[in-house]
């Protein structure tokens, strides 16, 4: 049974990552089938996936859309190339990997899809929604799948050096999370500053000085504004969430390595944090198909409920999926968790059957926190409990309420919140892509009837 579980673990993690990458490329291909007519000759080419361009019903509008898309994409690419030129010096090879697989490709698909979303809007709200959502899914699945796959490969390679020294192995792996945080510092802050400066500048020139609409083609700052949507809200957001994703995974792996799991060299139990992420990719894949292939948007008012449904469905499916995997395949083999204290003794944590409950709780908390926080803040008992937990210092306040599986429970809970990151990021990226599409429609001179 042990060998079977270990074999399943070694297959599930890379398989889920590769399926996530393949699904992202499929969404990319489906978006590329929306034809944009325009001259992309010269030094710049927007064809990340080769296709034969065909004309549309309104060739002039289509050409305008293509030209505007190219201008936005060139500006966004220029920004990232300048930013990553300094990052490569700072981060070396790791920065190059993130540059290719995360922020850069996510930004490129966003600029690749904005004009296509605009043109699809002429066929109906549903067509535009599917194109924009699929484009966002590319970003989400690339981040989750590549983050999982690179971490898994790093562990396998480091293991050839460290051998049975699991504590040393997973302590070294924490550098993966540090690199993700460094990327987030540059990507999120740099992109955020740029997008806010461009947005305010465009508004000041257009709305304040000239009294013209926000995306009026006469305002030269509009392209910079749209570039900011991509480098800040797409590439920057992606690097930020990747940092959180990498940190949570590495933290859970390291905490497990210094427990009885690492001491006993139980590979399947040790891989539980990666298994959570693997199940999350599969769950988000199913959720995305429900949004793009099994439902139809007929009116603008149906978009927001559809996006909220994705969060609810992904949470329910993830809760069920992680429970099934935990109880029937993996975590049932973790009978108990033990940690060393300062005196070298062993502190026994409760049975590992609580781990799926912790993941489920973190998922539900992340979805319901918006409504739950006002309730908890207004009741005297929870507030008093938190105040009492601070009497012995900040540390007891941090771990208050997470005694089920000690520090490992906190690490797994954080990872549980990020387990459906592919769906969450797809929804987040949908916003800037749609915003760009609306700006392109106005700049291209499309009427409300057309769009």
Automatic annotation (TrEMBL):
<feature type="transmembrane region" description="Helical">
    <location>
        <begin position="311"/>
        <end position="332"/>
    </location>
</feature>
<protein>
    <recommendedName>
        <fullName>H(+)-exporting diphosphatase</fullName>
        <ecNumber>7.1.3.1</ecNumber>
    </recommendedName>
</protein>
<feature type="transmembrane region" description="Helical">
    <location>
        <begin position="270"/>
        <end position="291"/>
    </location>
</feature>
<feature type="transmembrane region" description="Helical">
    <location>
        <begin position="242"/>
        <end position="263"/>
    </location>
</feature>
<keyword id="KW-1278">Translocase</keyword>
<feature type="transmembrane region" description="Helical">
    <location>
        <begin position="128"/>
        <end position="158"/>
    </location>
</feature>
<dbReference type="InterPro" id="IPR004131">
    <property type="entry name" value="PPase-energised_H-pump"/>
</dbReference>
<dbReference type="Pfam" id="PF03030">
    <property type="entry name" value="H_PPase"/>
</dbReference>
<dbReference type="GO" id="GO:0009678">
    <property type="term" value="F:diphosphate hydrolysis-driven proton transmembrane transporter activity"/>
</dbReference>
<keyword id="KW-0472">Membrane</keyword>
<feature type="transmembrane region" description="Helical">
    <location>
        <begin position="86"/>
        <end position="107"/>
    </location>
</feature>
<keyword id="KW-0406">Ion transport</keyword>
<dbReference type="GO" id="GO:0004427">
    <property type="term" value="F:inorganic diphosphate phosphatase activity"/>
</dbReference>
<keyword id="KW-1133">Transmembrane helix</keyword>
<keyword id="KW-0812">Transmembrane</keyword>
<keyword id="KW-0460">Magnesium</keyword>
<feature type="transmembrane region" description="Helical">
    <location>
        <begin position="12"/>
        <end position="31"/>
    </location>
</feature>
<dbReference type="GO" id="GO:0016020">
    <property type="term" value="C:membrane"/>
</dbReference>
<feature type="transmembrane region" description="Helical">
    <location>
        <begin position="398"/>
        <end position="418"/>
    </location>
</feature>
<keyword id="KW-0813">Transport</keyword>
<dbReference type="GO" id="GO:0012505">
    <property type="term" value="C:endomembrane system"/>
</dbReference>
């Amino acid at each position: 049974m042990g060998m079977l579980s270990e074999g399943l673990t070694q297959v599930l993690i890379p398989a889920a990552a590769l399926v996530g990458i393949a699904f992202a490329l499929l969404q990319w291909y489906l978006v590329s089938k929306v034809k944009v007519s325009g001259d992309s000759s010269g030094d710049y080419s927007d064809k990340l996936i080769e296709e034969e361009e065909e004309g549309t019903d309104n060739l002039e509008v289509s050409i305008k859309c293509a030209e505007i898309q190219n201008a936005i994409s060139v500006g966004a690419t220029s920004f990232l190339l300048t930013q990553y030129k300094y990052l490569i010096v700072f981060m070396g090879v790791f920065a190059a990997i993130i540059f290719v697989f995360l922020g850069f490709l996510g930004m490129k698909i966003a600029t690749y899809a904005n004009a296509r979303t605009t043109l699809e809007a002429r066929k109906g709200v549903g067509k535009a929604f599917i194109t924009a959502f699929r484009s966002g899914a590319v970003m989400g699945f690339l981040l989750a799948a590549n983050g999982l796959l690179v971490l898994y490969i790093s562990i396998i390679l480091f293991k050839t050096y460290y051998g049975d020294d699991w504590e040393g192995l997973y302590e070294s792996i924490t550098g993966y999370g540090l690199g993700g945080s460094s990327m987030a510092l540059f990507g999120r802050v740099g992109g955020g500053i740029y997008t806010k400066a461009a947005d305010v500048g465009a508004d000041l020139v257009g709305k304040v000085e000239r009294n013209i609409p926000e995306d009026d083609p006469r305002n030269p700052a509009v392209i910079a504004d749209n570039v900011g949507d991509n480098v800040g809200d797409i590439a920057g957001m992606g690097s930020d969430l990747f940092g959180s994703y990498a940190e949570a995974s590495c933290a859970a792996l390291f905490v497990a390595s210094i427990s009885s799991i690492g001491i006993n060299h139980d590979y399947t139990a040790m891989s539980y944090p990666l298994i959570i992420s693997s199940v999350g990719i599969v769950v988000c894949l199913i959720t995305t198909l429900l949004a793009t292939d099994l439902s139809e948007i007929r009116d603008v008012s149906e978009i927001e409920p559809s996006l909220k449904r994705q969060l609810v469905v992904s949470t329910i499916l993830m809760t069920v999926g992680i429970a099934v995997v935990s109880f029937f395949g993996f975590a049932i083999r973790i009978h108990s968790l033990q940690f060393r204290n300062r005196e070298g003794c062993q502190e026994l944590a409760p049975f590992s059957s609580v781990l799926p409950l912790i993941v489920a709780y973190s998922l539900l908390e992340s979805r319901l926190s918006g409504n739950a926080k006002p309730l908890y803040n207004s009741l005297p008992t929870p507030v008093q409990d938190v105040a009492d937990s601070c009497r012995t210092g900040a540390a007891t306040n941090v771990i208050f309420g997470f005694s089920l599986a000690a520090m490992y429970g906190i690490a797994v809970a954080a990872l549980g919140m990020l387990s459906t990151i592919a769906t969450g990021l797809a929804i987040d990226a949908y916003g800037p892509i749609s915003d760009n599409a609306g700006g392109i429609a106005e700049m291209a001179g499309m009427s409300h009837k057309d769009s």
